Amino acid sequence: ASDLPLKGKKVIISAGGTIERIDPVRYITNDSSGKMGHRLAEQARDLGADVILVTASKLEHPFGVTVRPVSSAREMQAAIMSDFDDATIIIMAAAVSDYRPKNQADKKMKKASQDIQILLEENPDILATMGQQKTHQFLIGFAAETNDVEKYATDKLKRKNADMIVANDVSKEHAGFNKDTNEVIIFQPNKEAIHIETDTKENIAKHILLEALYSMKL
Ligand code: PMT
């Protein structure tokens, strides 16, 4: 294999926690820092890929990749889908909010004298939608779990029609949200699971990409 096995190939990577607005000054989000996705973007770049990083993170933009900053799940979906057709690999490292406020106030909401309710409606599942539409694309999803990691990860592999699910147990001290390290298990259809011991997100990112290349016979 060449040193640049992804030369001339387009790789789309999502990163960070989406932001779902309640009003102009308030929002719903999660603890994803974007580190895992940004490290994947750098490693894919170093393997020669034309990388598109669709990021909801405030981290510095990596050098040598095309960055598309987004906020909400729907913006993330639009930014990914515009390059979907000719992408070779798509990696969903982002933590996408499953719900958004149904009504987004265009002025700051005022304090009420009683309890208030925020009604949430479902966001599109970006990975599952791509799973239905894919032709040649190799789809990699993540699974952030706190228990029954294998059960939930293999379920996501099937349900979202992904080619690989990278599961991280986010209850562990050295893994998951906002850490510089991670520990993951890679699940693929009809293959033994691969456990990658605790390492920097940079090295974990490299492992994930090399495993995908091996499975794609690139
Ligand atoms: O960003 P860091 O601080 O470095 O942390 C990394 C991470 C823990 C966020 C990352 O490694 C990770 O696990 N990301 C996925 C978290 C997650 O939202 O998992 P999930 O089980 O909710 O979703 C499963 C998969 O479907 C994910 O690939 C997700 O991007 C995708 N998804 C989920 C919901 C949705 N509406 N659309 C999606 O595409």
From TrEMBL:
Reaction(s) this enzyme catalyzes, per UniProt: N-[(R)-4-phosphopantothenoyl]-L-cysteine + H(+) = (R)-4'-phosphopantetheine + CO2; (R)-4'-phosphopantothenate + L-cysteine + CTP = N-[(R)-4-phosphopantothenoyl]-L-cysteine + CMP + diphosphate + H(+)
Residue segments, region Phosphopantothenate--cysteine ligase: 11-218
Entry annotated with the keyword Flavoprotein: yes
GO BP term (any one): coenzyme A biosynthetic process
GO molecular function terms attached to this record: FMN binding; metal ion binding; phosphopantothenate--cysteine ligase activity; phosphopantothenoylcysteine decarboxylase activity
CC cofactor: Mg(2+); FMN
Residue ranges constituting the DNA/pantothenate metabolism flavoprotein C-terminal domain according to the UniProt record: 6-210
Similarity comment: In the N-terminal section; belongs to the HFCD (homo-oligomeric flavin containing Cys decarboxylase) superfamily.
Function: Catalyzes two steps in the biosynthesis of coenzyme A. In the first step cysteine is conjugated to 4'-phosphopantothenate to form 4-phosphopantothenoylcysteine, in the latter compound is decarboxylated to form 4'-phosphopantotheine.
Protein name per UniProt: Coenzyme A biosynthesis bifunctional protein CoaBC
Residue range from the parent sequence: 183 to 400 of 400
